[in-house]
Structures are given as structure tokens and as C-alpha cells.
Specification:
The protein has ten helices and two strands, in the order αααααββααααα. By secondary structure, it is mainly alpha-helical. It has one domain (3-268). A two-stranded antiparallel ribbon has the order 1-2. A hairpin with a 4-residue loop joins strand 1 (135-142) and strand 2. Helix 1 runs antiparallel to helix 2, helix 5 (99-123) packs parallel to helix 7 (178-188) and helix 5 (99-123) packs antiparallel against helix 10 (249-268). The radius of gyration is 17 Å and the shape is globular. The two termini are 26 Å apart.
């Protein structure tokens, strides 16, 4: 690998790690299109590299979010049961689909998710108003607002169903599943955006690990490419956790919507 290629992958990894840790999506939403469109890497190799990077993102960001009390560990572990089952199925399915088909699936699901998040953000002008009389009650200190946020979750079966789909798409597309779990926890279960992103970040490493060995066994994982991307992702993850301390939940939601629209448009019109 040339120095230019290494620096390109390193830069992409930093951006992916920052976005992934901040939004709880693992970075695959950015890294897969970056590797395919900019670095010219075949989509299956790009997905395999992204899955390894997602594991690195989760390992770095989750430790910080756990320390700050943002992760709802009990709810996250429940959702992860459904997610891992879906991830294994997705990893197996990916090997019978062509690259263009995977790309179109990627773009379509991102656009639908972005529209749902946009609708919620536009209607929620006063920010999150979490319920406190549901299950898995938790609280965290919001450094941006200087207040303690208390909440509980609702509609657990619906969120588990989305987690199953998220796991399948994670194994299928190498995106960590956070792009679907975060909106599901926020829109369906009523979790504050920061808690949803942090809990997703905690979960996505397990989800990615469940499908990583399948890509490795099929020879899609290029260790050299993955190592360069992971180095950048680790640096970006530390940056993402620092930014999250200063950003408000509503702003985080708008950033989430913007990222989804951008990536889906790039992949669909590729």
C-alpha cells in the first residue's frame, strides 16, 4: 500500500469514527461509501473493512459512554439478542447478492430512515420530553444542558423487531445497524437522542462481530486495508466522544438526518 493510499484510508477512518461514535451508527454509513466511491474498493471488501472498523468504534466509544452513564445497558442487551440473530443471517445473505444490489438496498433504507427522523425532528420543536413511567428507567447528566435527564422506554416489542432488521442489514451492508436502532430507540421507545446513540454504540460492536467471521471466511477481508481504516477510526472515536459532551440532543438529531440523506443520495446515484 502506498503512503497516499494509507493517508486516504486513515482520513476516511477518522471521519467515520467521529460520526459513528457521535451518532451511534458505527461509522459504516460513511466508511462504506468512502471506500467504494473514493478509494475504489469493491463493495464486499468495503463492507468487510467497515465491519472491523465498527468493532473498533464501539470498543472505544462505549467505554466512555458507559463511564458517563449514557448507556442503558439492560435495554441494550435485550435488543442485542434480536440484533445478533439478524446479523448472522445478513452476513450469509450478502454472499449471494451482487454489489449493485447491495448498493441500492443501502441507499433505499437510508433514505426511508432519514425521512422518518426528519418528520420527528420537524414536529418536535421543543426537544425531547422523555416519559418516566415505562420500563428500563434510567438517567444521565447532560453536560450540554447542565441538567439530569430521566427517562424510561416503551414499545419494546416494536423496537426489538427493528433491531432484528437492523442486525440483518448490519451483516448485509456492514453499517453496524445503528442507523436503524438509533431511530427505533428514539422514535418508538422514546429514548432521548443522546441515550439512544450511546446505547447503540454499545451494541454495534457485538452486532458487527457476529457477522465479521462470515466475511473473513469468504475472503472479503483485506487486513492491510482494515488496519489503516481502524487506526483512523480509533482517533475519530475519541474526538466523537468529546464533541458529544457539548452538543444538544435536538442538534444531534438534525445531524443524524443530514448524514443519512447525504450518504443515501451518494450511494443511490452512484
Amino acid at each position: 500500500m502506498s503512503l497516499e493510499s494509507f493517508l486516504l484510508l486513515l482520513t476516511g477512518g477518522v471521519v467515520a469514527g467521529t460520526i459513528g461514535t457521535l451518532l451511534g451508527i458505527g461509522g459504516g454509513l460513511f466508511l462504506v461509501p468512502f471506500l467504494v466511491l473514493v478509494a475504489g474498493i469493491p463493495v464486499h471488501q468495503a463492507i468487510a473493512t467497515s465491519i472491523v472498523a465498527v468493532i473498533a468504534t464501539s470498543s472505544t466509544g462505549a467505554s466512555v459512554y458507559l463511564e458517563r452513564g449514557l448507556v442503558n445497558m439492560r435495554f441494550g442487551m435485550l435488543l442485542e439478542v434480536a440484533t445478533v440473530i439478524g446479523a448472522i443471517a445478513g452476513g450469509l445473505t450478502a454472499n449471494v447478492l451482487s454489489g449493485p444490489t447491495l448498493t441500492k438496498i443501502f441507499a433505499t433504507v437510508m433514505m426511508v430512515t432519514a425521512l422518518l427522523m426528519l418528520r420527528r425532528s420537524a414536529n418536535n420543536k421543543h426537544g425531547d420530553a422523555p416519559e418516566t413511567n415505562g420500563a428500563f428507567a434510567s438517567e444521565f447528566n447532560d453536560d450540554a444542558s447542565g441538567s439530569v435527564v430521566r427517562y424510561s422506554v416503551k414499545n419494546i416489542p416494536g423496537t426489538m423487531a427493528i433491531s432484528l432488521l437492523a442486525g440483518n442489514l448490519s451483516g448485509l451492508l456492514g453499517i453496524g445497524g445503528g442507523a436503524f436502532k438509533v431511530p427505533a430507540m428514539h422514535l418508538l421507545s422514546g429514548m432521548p437522542m443522546k441515550a439512544a446513540a450511546a446505547t447503540s454504540n454499545f451494541m454495534i460492536g457485538v452486532t458487527a462481530a457476529a457477522s465479521a467471521f462470515i466475511y473473513f471466511s469468504h475472503g472479503h477481508l483485506n487486513a492491510v486495508l482494515a488496519s489503516a481504516a481502524v487506526l483512523g477510526v480509533l482517533g475519530g472515536s475519541f474526538l466523537g466522544t468529546r464533541i458529544s459532551r457539548r452538543i444538544h440532543g435536538k442538534t444531534l438529531a438534525w445531524i443524524f438526518v443530514g448524514v443519512l440523506f447525504l450518504i443515501s443520495a451518494q450511494m443511490f446515484f452512484r
